[in-house]
Write a structure and sequence with these properties.
Layout: H1 2-5, E1 11-18, E2 30-37, H2 40-53, E3 57-59, E4 66-67, E5 73-80, E6 85-88, E7 91-95, H3 100-109, E8 112-113, H4 125-130, E9 134-135, E10 138-139, E11 144-150, E12 155-159, H5 171-174, E13 179-186, E14 188-189, H6 192-209, E15 215-219, E16 224-225, H7 231-234, E17 246-247, H8 249-255, E18 262-263, E19 266-268, E20 275-278, H9 284-302, E21 311-312
Parallel strand pairs: 2-5, 3-5, 4-21
Antiparallel strand pairs: 1-2, 6-7, 7-13, 8-14, 9-10, 11-12, 11-13, 15-20, 16-17, 18-19, 19-20
């Protein structure tokens, strides 16, 4: 497999690559192969080679929202690493491998409004589209006109509606065989200085909650949609807790005694019940055990099932 992948232009192939170096948690064993494709033809040829070899494979992005097994991955981990970014007027075409922060900063510099609330969210654009990332009442889907992706055979493009965006969700989460390669966004004119002030204020708050050096994936669980909660549970929740039609998972976790919980080298933050971080020597097993315990406590006390934002490899 190594020799075949090595003949494809536009691919970078690393063997026995420690995935802990490519995740925000800093956790995870080695991938047999870590393959970065930097063009659509390279991606298509790599996918064909993997398919014909029947090699076990997984697709990831920037790794900011991943929990990777301590045993690693006994196959090919594929990333689309093109970082191209083009702005024409209010239209933006951005490749999946571009850092989301680079997209935010570039849009602000160009005097374009619509992404400034996402400043400080780590990771790549492809992963942000995959999980419909957002903050402060806005999500990326509001600005997506179309998404270009590789469907396993060819590259094609679909519009916003076909992406089936929902809260922290998209069709790409259900179609694991589709690989996002780029997106076209539509933004609004804005004043760069004003947008920069907004972004700097948000970044200050975010860095206090999630320090850049903290080994974490941000919020572990999705928030709960108010209208989807049982009426009996709604009656128990103070009105002040409901924000933009959602109840923070942290509300239930706090009442379940999550804050400060420790399992080996990982713990729940004392100031934020929906934040698990690696203290330095944590393992994926310890993270999963802690997540399982948190879900059990909330299930037993409130009769609801928390859903992870993080993905598992």
């Amino acid at each position: 497999m190594r020799s075949r992948l090595g003949t494809i232009p536009g691919l970078e192939v690393l063997e026995n690559a420690p995935l802990r170096d490519h995740t925000r948690f800093g956790i995870g064993g080695p991938a047999r192969f870590l393959v970065d494709a930097r063009s659509e033809p390279a991606l298509a040829r790599a996918a064909q080679a993997i398919r014909e070899s029947a090699e076990l494979h997984a697709v990831i992005g920037g790794g900011t929202n991943l929990i990777v097994s301590d045993d690693g991955f006994a196959g090919v981990v594929l990333r689309y690493a093109d970082r191209a970014l083009e702005i024409q007027g209010a239209a933006v075409r951005v490749a999946a491998g571009a850092a989301l922060q680079e997209l935010v900063d570039s849009s602000i510099a160009a005097g374009l409004r619509g992404l400034e609330t996402m400043t400080g969210i780590p990771g790549w654009v492809g992963g942000a589209i995959y999980g419909n990332a957002g903050a402060y009442g806005h999500s990326l889907h509001e600005r997506v006109e179309s998404v270009r992706f590789f469907d396993g055979v060819s590259v094609r493009e679909i519009g916003n509606a076909a992406c089936e965006f929902r809260y922290r969700d998209s069709v790409f989460k259900r179609r694991k065989d589709w690989i996002i390669v780029s997106a076209r966004l539509r933004l609004d004119p804005g004043e760069p200085a004003e947008l920069r002030t907004i972004a700097e204020g948000i970044l200050k708050i975010r860095n206090e909650k999630y320090p850049p050096t903290m080994r974490c994936a941000g919020s572990i669980f999705k928030n709960l949609i108010w209208t989807e909660l049982p009426a009996a549970l709604q009656a128990r929740i103070p009105e002040r807790v409901v924000r933009e039609g959602k109840v923070p998972s942290a509300y239930f976790l706090e009442l379940a005694g999550a804050q400060g919980m420790i399992n080996g080298g990982v713990r729940v933050a004392t100031y934020h019940a929906n934040l698990i971080y690696n203290q330095g020597d944590g393992t994926a097993l310890q993270v999963r055990e802690l997540i399982g315990e948190l879900k059990r406590r909330v299930r037993d006390r409130f009769g609801i099932e928390l859903e992870e934002e993080v993905q598992y490899v």
